[in-house]
Design brief:
The chain is globular and about 55 Å long. It is built from one helix and 16 strands. The longest helix is centred in the first third of the chain and has 17 residues. 6% of the residues lie in helices and 68% in strands. With 285 residues, the protein is mainly beta.
């Protein structure tokens, strides 16, 4: 019922905003995940649907995500399924400053104790010039048995060489975990994590190319500007990604491959390998 209510609200509001929008889009993505060396999961399928609306000095972005995973039984008793919703609002104060607020909710998880966890975020972007900007965002994640505080620093840089546009971004994430009630999820977890990453996106005519990497361990992290949250007891050690895409009229189609290494913390099962194939389709209006 909660999911139905949220989407009904979005659908009712959408036609009003559509009439006055600029450079906005709708989004669909589909992921296939393969787990190697895991003692809990075999594979998973993730589906996402979203809308990104820009109206005057405001921007609204909403994503809904649903996933199903085949698990190993035992130790788990049933297959996994979960649903999440993400929201971000941005407002341009002037040519230099823009602020953002984030919200996410794990609407349902039939296995994890992080079911109904909520993420709150607030941040500020400062634009130095047309080529560079910086964003600082603070996230707070509220679970029943523990809380997560995360500070993100992102630096963005744009450059054009001949007909090729480059967008380079670097980020640092500091994560602090506060255990309120002793629980199995935090067994073998560190109290805090510091991780860094870098992303590159290039655009040539109708073609796109992207690559990214994260270094350093992280757990229970908020990712992708607040549109991913890692709510299972898994400590990620490294992440590498590559992607290609193409504009086809008002559509943008992209294919990404992500390679991750992780540790299942309660079991202290190291060297879990996760391969993710993601297909993304945007329609711009």
């Amino acid at each position: 019922m909660k999911t139905l209510f949220l989407f009904s609200l979005v659908m009712l509001y959408t036609p009003i905003v559509f009439a006055n929008t600029i450079h906005s889009s709708v989004l669909n993505y589909f992921e296939v995940k393969d787990y190697s060396g895991s003692l809990q999961k075999k594979d998973a399928i993730v589906y996402g649907l979203g809308i990104d609306v820009h109206y005057k000095d405001s921007s609204y972005k909403v994503n809904y995500e649903s996933a199903q995973a085949d698990t190993k039984q035992p130790p788990l008793k049933k297959d996994l399924n979960y649903q999440k919703i993400f929201f971000k609002y941005g407002y341009k104060l002037n040519d230099r400053f823009k602020f953002n607020i984030n919200y996410a909710n794990i609407l349902h998880d039939n296995i994890a104790i992080t079911d109904d966890g909520k993420v709150y975020g607030a941040g500020l972007t400062y634009t130095f010039n047309k080529q560079s900007s910086m964003n600082v965002t603070q996230f707070y994640t509220d679970y029943d048995d523990f809380n997560v505080y995360q500070s993100d620093l992102n630096v963005y840089y744009k450059i054009k060489i001949n007909d090729i546009k480059f967008n380079l971004s670097s980020m640092i994430k500091y994560i602090d975990i506060d255990e309120e009630n002793q629980n199995s999820f935090l067994k073998n977890a560190d109290n805090s994590y510091l991780t860094s990453g870098i992303k590159l996106h290039s655009h040539y005519k109708t073609y796109h190319f992207g690559a990214g990497a994260y270094f350093g361990k992280r757990a229970f992290a908020v990712m992708n500007d607040g549109f991913k949250v890692q709510h299972h007891a898994m400590e990620f050690n490294s992440t590498y990604a590559i992607g290609v895409g193409k504009n086809i009229g008002d559509f943008v189609v992209r294919l990404q491959y992500i390679d991750q290494r992780a540790t299942e913390m309660p079991l202290n099962n190291k060297d879990v390998k996760i391969k993710v194939f993601r297909l993304i389709a945007n329609y711009k209006f």
